[in-house]
Amino acid sequence: MSDERTLSEEKRNGSLIPLDLNRCKTNFKRILPDSLRLKTLGAIAISCLLMTCLLFISSQMIVMEGFSKLEENAMQQNIERAENAIAGEIRKLDAIAYTWASAEETNTFLETRDHVYFQSAFPDEKFTGSNINIILFVDHENEIINHKYINLDYGHVMPTPRSLLSQLAENDITAENGILVLGSGPMLIATRPIIRSGQEEPSGTIIVGRYLDQAEMGVLSRQTELQLSVYESYQQNNPDDIQQIRPRLLSDRSEIVNPIDENTVAGYTILSDLHGNPGLIMKVEMPRDIFQNGQSAIQFSLLALVILGIISGAVTMGIMERMVLDPLSRLKTGIRSIRDGQSVSSRIDFTGDDEIAQVASGVNRMLDSLERSQNLLKQSEERFRHLFNDAHDIFFTTDTNGMITSTNRMAETLTGYTKTELIERELSEFFPDISDQTPNGAEPIQTNAMNNQSFETRITTKTGKELILDLHIQQRYSEGRICGLFGIARDITEKRAAEEELARYQNHLEDLVRERTTELSLINVNLTSEIERRRAAEQAGAAERERLSVTLSSITDGVIATDTRSRISLINKPAADLIGRSKDDLTGMDIGLVLPMQGGDGDALSADKLASEAIAKNAPIMISRDLYLEKADSLICPIEFSAAPIRDCKGAAIGSVCVIRDIGERRRHEDEMIRIEKLESIGLLAGGIAHDFNNILTAITGNLMIARMEITDNPAAIDRIERAETAALRARDMTRQLVTFAKGGSPVKETADIRDLIKETTLFVLQGTASRAEILIEPDLWTADVDCGQIGQVISNLVINANQAMPDGGIITVNAKNCTIKEDMGTCIPGDYLCISVHDQGCGISQNDLTRIFDPYFTTKQNGNGLGLASCLSIIKKHGGTIDVVSKPDIGTTFSIYLPASKKALSCRTCELTIPCGRDQSILIMDDDEAILEIASVILTQQGYTVTTATDGDEAICLYREAKKNGKSFDAVIMDLTIPGGMGGREAMAILYREDPSIKAIVSSGYSEDPVMSAYREHGYCAVLPKPYRGRDLLSLLDTVLNPLQDENSALADSFAQGSFFT
Predict the structure, then answer these.
(1) CA angle 664, 665, 669 (to 5 degrees)
(2) Residue 499 contacts residue 454 (beta carbons within 8 Å)
(3) Cys bridge to 260: 264, 449, 517, 907, which one at CB 3.0-4.6 A?
(4) How far apart are CA 119 and CA 157, in angstroms?
(5) Quick one: pLDDT at residue 577?
């Protein structure tokens, strides 16, 4: 059954081929060509030739490369031997120099410098015996004492080469051994210091030399058994190989090996001179024995390989003839006998198990297959005959004329005609519709009109019954030509009847569907409207969510939405930043875990409980006081927390929204406002204290002057009074520092030399501390227009900070120098400045704090208020300067103050005070302090002035008007700026100046920081007298105001020395 199935499939696929012995013969000729022996011989010859070439190339690339490397290594060793030989000659010269330097006659010659003795001590035989060309003696100052040159070729004395003497004069070679290239040729040089026994320092140097000429190189060649030669590196007439190799040697400074010809190889190297420069090129030659031995070995190997190849080829051909070619000939004879017998039942008789035997076995199997195929073909034809006759469809064939040639039994059954009646009849008689399938009436068989056609047709049986057939026709071919038609016809009469019945049912069903479709269309319209409404609602919801997202992102407060189980469903970026985690990480987590809070008493508060409480009460809750958030970086941040329920459309709570606000900045602002209010209170208190205290100091200094004027014959008492005045002035400066610290204010400047101010302030601050001051001030330090009290305060603050930076003490360096700024630096414009720097050796300031040290209220001290450096910077900026700071951790900090230098001249101070006297001039004094009025009146009256006093501005205005009305106007008016409960000097001066612009008024106040004190001319005053003041200050100022034709510079200088301020 399997054979039949196989034959059927092969027949259906058209793969059965009849046995063709001629084709077998042709294929076998391709397998075994007549020239197989020649091809085998050629393949062996080509293989041997390729192997020989490969061996030759590999030998040249690998073996000869190894021999070349051996040759190069041998040459490098020979170069090293040659260099060692030259170095050995230099060591021999060094030994000779050492022997002669240690000889007694050498030391005797250096002491006596007797040239006759030199000739006797160093005869010519001594040179020739030691093979020395030259000897020189040089003293410790590198001067040549004596020298002698012997030509070893002739054995007599000749002049010493000038090139050697010039090199000795230009370069110090008294401590070197090596090669010296001279104009007369290269020379080996050795030097030795001449030291007499018992001495440490050499008394001179001996230099011996020998030419490295051809004779010397011949000696070295014989010693080393090498061909050696040397050439000067920069000589132009060197041989060609030296000229070619010189650039490579000078650039690489290493040995180079270069074959000269087939028999000789040369090595080149650079010999440095005494100065380390390329001096000589040494050439070493040797025979190429190693290379030639390698070539001989390769040639012998190649010859042996050729002989071996010939022998191997002959043996191979013999083996091929016996084992391959002869069996192939027998196989060919067997196949030829089968072809001649035209029988597939014959077989090839062949023994063995090699490939040829397998080919013979394959041919036998092929013959078996062919025999089986023929048997199967016969069986297949029988089966096809049964299938053709027993089929339920009509099978028929025609010839090219359309005549029926064969039919099956089903054609007889359906048509009622016998096989005899059907055969030899035209096809169109049974299938009248077939002519309709041929276009233009063409012959359907000869054209392709009927090829592979399917159509329905109707026939009438012998009994007159009409049948509907499904007819399929295709052309039949024989040897590539059309031989007729093959047709299959199937009875589909009952099928068509069923299809017509089905069509009637289908039409009825379509009518029902159309009715239902009308109903569904109405429903679809309503459904489409509903979908559109839902889509619009979804778009509105998406837009609402987008607006919500934008709103949450824009809110600076943290917003968190939770569900009924306190899990985070929505969170904005400020809330995530406040917690210190990303939004994605926080979504879905319990709010109580990510938002730990605590109250002011330290008790923990749960955010989830607060959110749950808002949901349970369905009302918002808020906590705004004493609530802190524990952040991820272990910092505690003050916050406000509120929670409100999220309600659905029915008003039921479905979640909560929590708002967290960081109020740390607001707390800091509130604390700063409290500090500012406290500072303002301190300022008011300080101002009041300073005003009253300055009045008291004015009374003290006035009484001291009166006492001094009354005591003229007691120097000790006068000295005590002057010390008391100085102490009172120091108290005035401290009062002014207190007011400046508390309230600020514009500086009251004077042209001053601040050297003493720097020294006194620094030493005063460091009294009783563990730190020591090192003060460096340029002697020609420029003057500056400054408020000495404020500048002293700045220096005091900086020195205090420097001292506090060194708890264990240290050195504080205060440096004052002149400098010129060429580019803008902060508030400083280019110009001349005084630079005052304060440097400590403390712990330094970190980079983070360095940018904030001048911010108000910023401090790193436990008890600091953060106002020291801020007030310092404010004072220096008001002086037109700036402060620079440089700090390195663990090294120290340097603060540098830059103050504009003054262009005004500072007159010399006088040691003795000359108190000016009045000329019966009238003075009006207004002050609320009776003591000041009394003391000023006494001082001025004693000096010849007429004094009138007033206690407030109203009284002063009345007195001034009355005096002017009577023709006795006051020559000068001194006004206190501030009168408690009455009109002060500012308001009174404004009235008097409008009435009399020529008024000479002096403003006096204990409020030195009042703007009127620094801009007094803008308010009508011609001078300023700050409290407290001494009597001499008052008299000097009045004399300057009332007598302007006197030397103002002298008056100004004296007033500055005593502490008053005016122009």
Answers:
(1) 120
(2) no
(3) 264
(4) 11
(5) 84
